[in-house]
Amino acid sequence: MRIVLVGPPGAGKGTQAEFIAAHLSIPKISTGDIFRKNVSQGTPLGAEAKKYMDAGDLVPDEITIAMVKDRISEPDAENGYLLDGFPRNVAQAKVLDAMLDEMGSGLDMVMELVVDDEEVVRRLAGRRTCRDCGQIWHVEFDPTTVEDVCDRCSGALFQRDDDKESTIRHRLEVYNEQTAPIVDYYADRSILVGVDATGTVEDVTERAIAALHRMES
After folding, report:
1. Catalytically annotated residue among 2, 28, 71, 88
2. Which of 57, 116, 176, 206 could potentially form a cystine with 52 if both were Cys, beta carbons 3.0 to 4.6 Å apart?
3. pTM of the full structure
4. Is the pLDDT of residue 21 over 90?
5. Annotated catalytic residue, options 160, 164, 189, 214
């Protein structure tokens, strides 16, 4: 199967992508992994991408698309793949469709992990990181014995800037403006499946696998 996984920050895409890809015996492909691989191997596309990354700019769509095309053309993706983190907007989705059409293939499913904004804030804003060992805790879901003290090494806990509520809400605004519209784009093509992403990791995985089986049948 050829799948795109979408959902807001904090929906658990990375975790579910690993489980779904393993269940289907297909590679999980993320743009972050592709960028790092091309840069580390010094490919021409990696060299181009690095210029933008070093400047703190977004890598242009044409470079990203070219990297994705190279990756899904590799032998391990012959029987399918799961794209995590791409496409990020309708323009990229249309280019991806055109590229796949040229390759004689297409997407089988777009899976949306559905979770509301307040649940995302609850999940992310509650995270605390140890300054010494880097262990991540959660004030509600995985609290330490002593508040703001790491159970592993007794280091001090702090809230990272990207876990602060104001930052999370900004990320959600960006997602809702730029990425959420692809949900409607794929719904119009009747390949979108929504999966409730609330509850435990195991519960969400179970729902995702059930959705895959319904699509396959």
Report:
1. 88
2. 57
3. 0.86
4. yes
5. 160
